[in-house]
Structures are given as C-alpha cells and as structure tokens.
Amino acid sequence: MTGYNIAIVGATGAVGGRMIKMLEETSLPIKSVKLLASSRSAGKVLRFKDKDLQVQEAKPSAFEGIDLALFSAGGGVSKQLAPEAVKRGAVVIDNTSAFRMDPAVPLVVPEVNPADLYQHHGLIANPNCSTIQMVVALEPLRKKFGLKKVIVTTMQAVSGAGNRAIQELNDETAAILAGKDYTPQVLPVSGDQKHYQIAFNPLAQIDVFEENGYTHEEWKMIHETKKIMANEDLQVTATCVRVPVAVAHSESVWFELEKDGATAAKLQELLAQAPGVVLEDDPAHQVFPQAVNAAGKKETFVGRVRADEEQKNAFHLYCVSDNLLKGAAWNSVQIAEYLDQMDLVRVPQK
Amino acid sequence: MTGYNIAIVGATGAVGGRMIKMLEETSLPIKSVKLLASSRSAGKVLRFKDKDLQVQEAKPSAFEGIDLALFSAGGGVSKQLAPEAVKRGAVVIDNTSAFRMDPAVPLVVPEVNPADLYQHHGLIANPNCSTIQMVVALEPLRKKFGLKKVIVTTMQAVSGAGNRAIQELNDETAAILAGKDYTPQVLPVSGDQKHYQIAFNPLAQIDVFEENGYTHEEWKMIHETKKIMANEDLQVTATCVRVPVAVAHSESVWFELEKDGATAAKLQELLAQAPGVVLEDDPAHQVFPQAVNAAGKKETFVGRVRADEEQKNAFHLYCVSDNLLKGAAWNSVQIAEYLDQMDLVRVPQK
C-alpha cells in the first residue's frame, strides 16, 4: 500500500475531528493515519473510515515514520512538538498561531498563495480561521483591481474556541430559556480573567487584548492578511466579535481597490468564477450567505457585494465560511493535497 | 390636575410597552394616558402606574383633547392617523419611518440636534433605532474634531422586528436545542417572501432590499445620519445584520475625523463626559459594552475606542444600546421632555 503516513495532533478537539473527516474525503494517497493528543485523551477510540483507531500520546517518538503531521492542539504543543516532528522527517502543517509570523514559515491559503509552499523548510502554517475566508473572498478582486484597504467586522462562531465553547453556548442558552442561572467558564477566552455570557449576547473580545486596544484576533487578521497577500502596504483593520453561533464565521468586509473600473457587477462576476468561492448574491430573491448553509461545506460563501456610493473604488462584501473546515481542517488538508501535487511532501535537507 | 394628555399608538407592541414604562419614569407632567392600538387589540387591559387602562381603537376621534401622541404602530398607521392627531391639536412624536425624510419634519436625537425641535409643525420623527445609538456615540467626537466618513456594521436584536420576532427567536432556539424542526415565519422581514432561521444564525437582511443592493435599514442609517447631523456631505455606509439577540443592538463603527489631533485617549475623554453615553472601555480588565448589560438602560454604552493604525484621523468604536429604549421608546419620551422644557408642546398655527 503506497501513500503517506499521516498524524493528527489534537485529534480529539473540535478541529481535530474535522481533520479526520477531511482526510476521509481527500484524494491524497494515505497509507496510515495516527491520532495523537494529550496524555489525558490517549486511549480514546475514534473512527477513521471503517477502522477504530486508538488515540496515542503526542510525544517526539510518535512522529517516527510520519510523512505529514497536521497540528491543532494549541500553540504550546506546536512550539514543543512541531520541530520534533520535522526533525524526524515529517512535514508539519500547523493550525496554531505558533509559527505564522515566522518569516521562514510559509503562511498558506491555497487559493491565494500556493507558490509560497515551495519555500517550506518542513513547516507550513495554516492561517487564522477569520483571515482565511476573507482572503479567499478578496483575492480574485485583488488580482484584477489591486487592494488598498480592508475594514472588517467579524461575527465569529464559538467553535473557534473549541468543543468546550460549543458546549457552553448550548448549555447556557438552554439555561437562559428555562430561566435558570448559568456561570460562564469558557468564553470569551478560556485563559483570561473574566468570563461572560455568550447566549443572546455578542462579545467584542476574541483572544486576549493587546496594548493598543486591539485583540490578538484582530492583530492576526491584520498581519496575517498582509503576509498571505505579500503586501506590507495593504491597509487592514478589524473588529472581531464572538456571536451566539456554533459553526461558521460571518464577516462584513469593506474594501478599497487600487485601480479604477470596478463595479459591483464586475466583482460579482469575478467571485462567481473564483476558486473556493460560491457567490450567493441575489437580493431580489433574498439570497445572501448564511452560517447554517455554510456549516459543513468547504467553500467560502460571498454575497451582499455593493458599491460604497460615496467613495470611488470602495465596496462591501459579506462572506461566510465553516471556521472548522476552510478556517482550519480543510485548509490544512488542502495544503497537504497541494504539497502532494507539487511534490513537496519532504523535509528539505539543510 | 395639570399636565399633558398623552396617547400611545401601538401600545400593545414591543415598543409601546416600553413607552408605557418610560412614561411611568418620566418627569414630564402627565394628566392622562390613553392607550391606542388596532381594533384587534382594543379591549386589552394594560397597567400604567397603579391603574388598569383599557386599550382603545386608534381612530381619528381618539385624538380629541390629546396634547402629545407617541406613535409606534407601523408606517401605515402613522401616515393615516398622525395628520389626524395633529389636526386635532396633538403634537405627534412618530417612531416609524413614515415622515423621517420629510424636509418639513424634524428628525431628532436630543443629545445631537434638540434645536431642530423649534422647526416642528406638529410632527416630530424619531429616528431608526440603529441610527440613534450611533449618532449619540459619534456626536461628541464630531463636535470637537468634525466627522468625514462612517462605516458601520450592526449586530441588531430581533426585538426591532417586534414581539413576534422575540417569540420566534425563543421558540426556534428551544426547538433547535431539542433537535426539533421549526419553520420560521417572521424573520428576517415578516412581510418579505422568504423567512430564515435566526437561532444561531446571523441574517444580513434587515428590512427589504433596495435596487442598489443595500437594505432599507442600511439606507436609513445612511440618510438619517446625514439629516440628524445636518451634513449631506458626511459619508456614511452601512451593513446591517440581525443576530440571535433579544434586546440591544451592538455596532462596530469605523470613522474618519476631519481635523487632526485626535487620539484614542482624547476620544475616550470626550465620550466619558458626553450626555447619554456611558464609556465602558478598559481592555486590561476586559471591559467593553455588552447587550446583556445595556438592556433595560437608557444610555448608549461605548467602548473598544482605538486608532486605525494605518490611516490618519481614523478610529474604531463599538456601541451598544437598548433598541427598544434609546432606540425607540426612551428617545420618543425624551423628545417629549425636551418639547415640554422648550415650551413646544403645541401645534403652531399656519
């Protein structure tokens, strides 16, 4: 049996579960799948296709013989174990923020900057979920008209904060509907000092606050977008809000193009043909992207494309995508597919 | 007993109920309160202070002897009955969109343009809920630094679509948590062709779509803001999204000031002293405005004030307010208080 030996690190998490599903659906040749997690989760049994696989402890020796390792177990785990995996010959696709801004590490969205994969030294970073769907939607427009400025407000699903956050949303919502008390323990940020109600209550905090008043999630959207689009002069600013939604992020994006000549109709035409994009934009029939329709799908759904009627070359769009799939697991597996097609599933010798 | 004879038209609705509450709390001298609604709701008994009041049918003769009439029963009812009320000597404060853009009708937010009340001919329009809280937050900044451009994304509560929408959010959420089917019948717009799930699903449609791809809600935010701030050159653009929240709208506002010299700290200082504003902006302690905290309050809560780090004189803020109070009932009763203080509770003779 030919194919790759693949490891998933963080297999028992919200993204890990989707990684298993994406590997079940991929055309990538697979020889074996190894599920890794913390020692606490080791021993659990998860299904891959028709097989039961026992979760093993993620430790350096677990990467012996692995060709491709998909990491999604938190930045700390990646910082510690990704170099160990690479040392043992595995190409790592890391879904955490640990290495994203490292100039030596490609930060890749296959629809945008697949050629950056040629630069990898064994480690490829998967961008933040909210960034990925935005650049997928903007790239076809940037290619044709150039991109000058982006102002985004996100409405992000709680699953971005993991399975415990989904559980909290459900339990808290049920409690409030029943008129019962509920003490939040996870959102907005499990490791931060205070926790707030997410049920029926948007929270304008995702990740911790920086010195300048932006959250780290907003910082990621700003700096990752510049890196992926390879343009430090691209102006990006963001407000990230968690909303009571389980799966799929919705984003309201205002953007200014560099070149003249764009119209909403022309942008819609570009989006209709763009890879990874489904245009859902028919106001006359109330067609616009919705989280419930995007959940479980790999594409980024784009609609509400229209001109800023008072500023030349400025437009709005609204994009929705499954944060666990295109925002995480699918983008990682898609990177693996590209690496395979580009013959890059190998750690370059120094 | 001295004071005003006041009528509430639409007393059985979501806003009407809050108007009763705001009149209970007002310092306005009140002689009598008359509750009016459609013939369908006539006969219902509602409480005002320690009295039971029977709801009467809203018809022209009902306004005989009324000094102040607060309308919130839909644009059609206002178009038909507001002129009848004015004809009978009542000053009308209309919470619908029926007369807002009429150049002869002042569109008033007391914190912003109270002097416009001097121009009234018997009819004053109360702006749209999403517009009011935004101009309350921006006005102190505009006054000091001038305002050039506003780009807003709203996350609006379902109560803006009435009591039936609140019921739908609750019933639908409970059904989904229980794994049951639910057929939406109200949201996003009760009178539109299609209805969609709001539970755990943001809907980027509030009010009907216009020809240019904007919704009518977005149109209102754009044009009402210009009128209230008396500046047709002020650039405003908007994306309005309904979110699974019962009460209080949250708004992510990016804005560009005209004059140099502003800093986030200076803007925070202005907001801390501004009428009708409560500054909730302390990222180090995770303090930012939240719908659950704003619900039931009259103020507009403002936070997340920070500079756009790549564009001079551009900033973000995040504002939250009770859409049924400052967005509707309280702003109407507040206008009544101002009319009383300005000795304007009379219909000018032609």
TrEMBL record, chains A, B:
Recorded superkingdom: Bacteria
Binding site for NADP(+): 12-15, 40-41, 159-160, 323
Keyword Signal: no
Residues the record lists as binding substrate: 156, 242
Pfam families: Semialdhyde_dh, Semialdhyde_dhC
SUPFAM superfamilies: Glyceraldehyde-3-phosphate dehydrogenase-like, C-terminal domain (SSF55347), NAD(P)-binding Rossmann-fold domains (SSF51735)
Annotated ranges, domain Semialdehyde dehydrogenase NAD-binding: 5-120
Keywords, comma-separated and alphabetical: Amino-acid biosynthesis, Diaminopimelate biosynthesis, Lysine biosynthesis, Methionine biosynthesis, NADP, Oxidoreductase, Threonine biosynthesis
Residue numbers annotated as active site: 129 (acyl-thioester intermediate), 249 (proton acceptor)
GO biological process: 'de novo' L-methionine biosynthetic process; diaminopimelate biosynthetic process; isoleucine biosynthetic process; lysine biosynthetic process via diaminopimelate; threonine biosynthetic process
Pathway annotation: Amino-acid biosynthesis; L-lysine biosynthesis via DAP pathway; (S)-tetrahydrodipicolinate from L-aspartate: step 2/4; Amino-acid biosynthesis; L-threonine biosynthesis; L-threonine from L-aspartate: step 2/5; Amino-acid biosynthesis; L-methionine biosynthesis via de novo pathway; L-homoserine from L-aspartate: step 2/3
Stored HAMAP family: ASADH (MF_02121)
Annotated function: Catalyzes the NADPH-dependent formation of L-aspartate-semialdehyde (L-ASA) by the reductive dephosphorylation of L-aspartyl-4-phosphate.
Similarity comment: Belongs to the aspartate-semialdehyde dehydrogenase family.
Protein name, UniProt field: Aspartate-semialdehyde dehydrogenase
Organism of derivation: Ligilactobacillus salitolerans
Lineage: Bacteria, Bacillati, Bacillota, Bacilli, Lactobacillales
Annotated gene: asd
